[in-house]
Amino acid sequence: QQQVKQSPQSLIVQKGGISIINCAYENTAFDYFPWYQQFPGKGPALLIAIRPDVSEKKEGRFTISFNKSAKQFSLHIMDSQPGDSATYFCAGPFSGGYNKLIFGAGTRLAVHP
Amino acid sequence: KAGVTQTPRYLIKTRGQQVTLSCSPISGHRSVSWYQQTPGQGLQFLFEYFSETQRNKGNFPGRFSGRQFSNSRSEMNVSTLELGDSALYLCASSLGSVTYNEQFFGPGTRLTVL
Fold first, then answer.
1. Contact A106 B48 (CB under 8 A)
2. Which DSSP string corresponds to A82-110?
3. For residue A103, which residues of chain B lie inside 8 Å, CB to CB?
4. Which residues does chain A have within 8 Å of residue B43's beta carbon, measured at their own beta carbons?
5. Stretch B107-112: mean pLDDT, rounded?
6. Fewer beta carbons within 10 Å, N or C terminal of chain B?
7. Distance to chain A for B14, nearest Cα, Å
8. B6-48: per-residue pLDDT in tens?
9. What average pLDDT does this structure show over B46-60?
10. What gap in Å lies between CA B12 and CA A79, rounded to an integer?
11. CA distance B24 to chain A (A)
């Protein structure tokens, strides 16, 4: 069964620290790896995404690192801020189903001031 | 540009009833996907509609169905509600072309089954 395994389940970081969330996938046909951010009472919103032809992508304080051989990708949030406190989901599309995302279980991030 | 809208935002039903949820995608988007979000199972894909046709389907029983209209608006229906159907139902829209497009999620409909 196609899965995306996400860890940790929850994370507490001090303001200014680095938050790191990891995901591992099984389906080597996945060709797009988005990260979504969800605040309470809101739907998930795309934060950053990467394709497997690059090993790293950076957008502001957010960086995705991708390790194709290990079938892992991770999200790094530099200089974490209290406003980053949210639930983060990694995802991958089912093979052949471009708009059919399979999500990780989510990581609840709390950034303490 | 207006975002994805979902109605109603909250809904309370009893077991055995049926429910219809509505989703209006972003203007110009032709693909609408539905997801169920629960604390235990997380975010799970229900189905995707593109140009009024179901293009992808998740592993949910036949009680869950959907449709898409010519204006890309979509509805999903759940018949014979069970307690376990209590969840946040999210709709996401995208352009829907053959390569992957960003999906934009609505705020969801919170369904409670008593």
1. no
2. GGG-EEEEEEEEPTT-TT-EEE---EEEE
3. 42-44
4. 44, 89, 101, 103, 106
5. 97
6. N
7. 23
8. 999 999 999 999 999 999 999 999 999 999 999 988 999 999 9
9. 91
10. 42
11. 14
- Token pair, residue A97, equals 């189903």
- Report the DSSP beta bridge partners of residue B64: B78
Closest CA–CA distance from residue B91 to any residue of chain A (Å): 9
Q: How far apart are CA B96 and CA B110, in angstroms?
A: 26
Report the alpha-carbon angle A33-A34-A40, nearest 5.
Answer: 150
Q: Report which residue type is found at B54.
A: Q
State whether B107 and A89 contact (CB < 8 Å). Answer: no
What is residue B85's three-state secondary structure? helix
Average pLDDT, stretch B81-106? 88
What is the pLDDT tens value at each position of chain A, 113 positions in all? 568 899 999 999 999 999 999 999 887 667 788 999 999 989 999 999 888 788 899 999 999 998 888 889 999 999 999 999 999 999 986 555 567 888 999 999 999 99
List the 35-54 stretch of A: residues with Cβ below 8 A of B.
Answer: 36, 41-46, 49
Q: How many CB atoms lie within 10 A of CB A49?
A: 16
